[in-house]
Amino acid sequence: MKLRYLVAAAAAMLTAPVAVSAPAMADGGVFVGVEGGNVAVSGYDTVSYFQGNGKPVLGSANFKVKHEGAVFHFSSQANADTFKANPDAYAPQYGGHCAWAMSRGSLAPGDPTLYKIHGGKLYLNFNRDVQTTWLGDIDGFISKSDPAWAKVPEGKKFGD
């Protein structure tokens, strides 16, 4: 299933229509992994991206919050509470899908280890090559990604 999804994601990046396998999406459009399940950002604590240590940390199922149809894991109850109080400040943009692919009107998985905080928001990328491209013109890609994400109907965000 993983290979099939990656091939589909690569093909989606080359075309304008939005295409995603249903198992990778939670009801609110959040990317929940190529193996299915319902855990967002591969279990990484999204609050940790914004803390001073410079690296995100894996969360734990002991500290979880449901948001946009997905389950977010956190490394502490304090981080879970912080997220719960303002999820839009800590959830990745475009539901955790690749920010560059979204600029092309496509959905592709975001790798939680390939990220950038820009303008106080968390953006994920598909792979290192894509991230290099993304970093070359972040504001330009955001100007394309935001309207593309807004055009993805809620039902289509989770594979209907």
Automatic annotation (TrEMBL):
Residues 1-26 form the signal peptide. The keyword Magnesium does not apply. Keywords: Signal. InterPro entries: YHS_dom. Pfam families: YHS. Residues 53-94 form the YHS domain. This is YHS domain-containing protein. The lineage of its organism: Bacteria, Pseudomonadati, Pseudomonadota, Alphaproteobacteria, Sphingomonadales.
